[in-house]
Amino acid sequence: MPRFFRILGMGLLPIWMIATCSAGTFHVDTRDELALMKRKVRASQFLHRATFGPTIEQIDSLATRMQQVGVRRACDEWIEEQFSLNASRHEPLIEAMIADDNLVPTQDGVWIHRFRHHAWWHQAITADDQLRQRVAWALVQILVTSDQGAGFNDRNAGNVSNKARWLGPTDYYDVLVDNAFGNYRQILEEVTYHPCMGIYLSHMRNRKSNGVRFPDENYAREIMQLFSIGLYELHLDGRLKRTPEGDLIPTYDNETIKNFARVFTGLTFKPRADGHSFWSGNDFQYPMEMYQPEHDTEPKTLLNGVVTDLDDGNEDIAAALQNLMDHDNVAPFVSYRLIQRLVKSNPSRGYIRRVARKFNDNGQGVKGDLKAVIKAILLDSEAWRSVRMRGRRNPYRVIVTSRGTEYSRLREPVIRYTNLLRGLHATSDYHTGRIMVLPMEWNWQQEPYKQPSVFNFFDPNYQPPGDLLGHQPSRRIPNGELVAPEFQQKTAVTSNRLINRYIWDISSQRSRHFASNANYTMECNLNFDLSAEKALATNDADMPKLLDLLDLVFCCGSMPDDYKARIVEVVNQETEWMRNNNDWKHEFENARVESALIAVTTSPFCAVSR
């Protein structure tokens, strides 16, 4: 049995006590250190939202810049630096990974599809363009496809690019990476024309009506319901509009769906060079092309009574996409979902309105500019209000108080795990040095490319069953109801599996990934660098500093004093016997650091982002 079980078996804090814990405190020695510590908490907050998890070095660096120029300006500079970085794309990395392993993308019997996951995790953990990668992860949960489409795992080559067709879903993901700082109108267009979306939501080879056969309505419905305007009319601040009788106002009806379905007719795979046929082609690497004979050219009534009757199919689609972008709902609808994915589950009406205004106009008359939207989300004053900080003297200390339910969200399992790997400076022992993580949805029911449906891993409006005790939603919440999307996939099973993964990784100080069959063997260990943590684990007096370090990196400084003190107390007591024991003293610092890490990373203060 691993050594930490004896320590954790003592128990740390009953769940009923966690709700009544006092604020957390960071003790410092000077007034300057007090000011810097406040910035470190702010830097941790910001980087948890803008990256796949910060390291202590990144927190320290941003905090130092905050000290020099102010919090908002330092974060604005950081965002601008991220905007300037080249995109770290996934498909070229997959091809390089496969070549370095002396394989080819069309190879059978080596679980070749695993490389799409290797590449995703490598970019999430190591890519410099963290903000772009994080925004792409948010976008792919709005504009959803999955790997469960016809041909999406086909090892055969496409007939134009000659690339394996299973690379198609990654090509789709890279569209969102490439456009993460672009315009939402352009994203809608590229998503509409991507063959993976065409297959997934079945407007690929959608044919005009012949009086018996009618166009497929799937994509027409979902581009409105899920990708742009939603089901009901919204105010700019996210509130639902109502009739004088109090009824909700639908944004579209079944006739609108039918008309949009007629717009999305005539699209098919890019054909071979030897001619254009509606039924030729099978390549996921190129946008779909219009086959005019199968496009419906009759007049179509779209949103707000707009009629399009263009003969050219591509112009017809362009007009329909612009019709969606012109709708008043698109700004609050998309803004709300991006805030949820990056900052908090329940943004206030004011927060949604401020971001939606930037969506509608970036200051230069452009609608849908995601650079402006991202800045508005990450730099909004409400994003900083999740914690209060007070500086005190005699002794010098920073007191951090969490503001509670409306300012928080449950972290996604994938984000929690990338945070662990990045926070512990994970490095790979694979022969290429790359992060060769295997798909891990069996641990926690979430994995890139594996959304269970077009509705993503969880519904943005999901509410866990049962009453919310001890809290009444404020008037700031748009429609008076709190939501908690990530709880939809959180069960006793997924919770236990996630915690077990953390325990086994931390207790072995590595994340192990192994797969093999008769044709191949792949083993990658992501080894953790715990030297800084171990340096704080030798002396009892330094243990509170160790907890402060872990609190900053994994909990944004939100861990209460009671909890940190109890960890220190239990770990000190339960490891003291090892200090001078010749058989165990070489494991003394390891046992302390591992136990503290497990207690922190499996705590509710790590699970909930503030």
Summarize the structure.
By secondary structure, the chain is mostly helical. It is built from 26 helices and 12 strands. A hairpin with a 4-residue loop joins strand 10 and strand 11 (521-527).
Describe the structure.
The chain has a domain of 46 residues. It contains 26 helices and 12 strands. The chain has a 3-stranded antiparallel sheet. A hairpin with a 4-residue loop joins strand 6 and strand 7. With 610 residues, it is mainly alpha-helical.
Instruction: Tell me the structural class.
Output: mainly alpha
Shape: globular
- Rounded mean pLDDT score: 94
Q: Helix amount, in percent? A: 40-55%
> Biggest sheet, strands in spatial order?
1-7-6
Strand content: 5-15%
Radius of gyration: 26 Å
Q: Largest sheet at a glance?
A: 3 strands, antiparallel
Distance between the termini: 35 Å
**Multimeric status of the protein:** single chain
Care to count the β-strands? 12
List the total number of helices.
26
Low-confidence stretches: 1-21
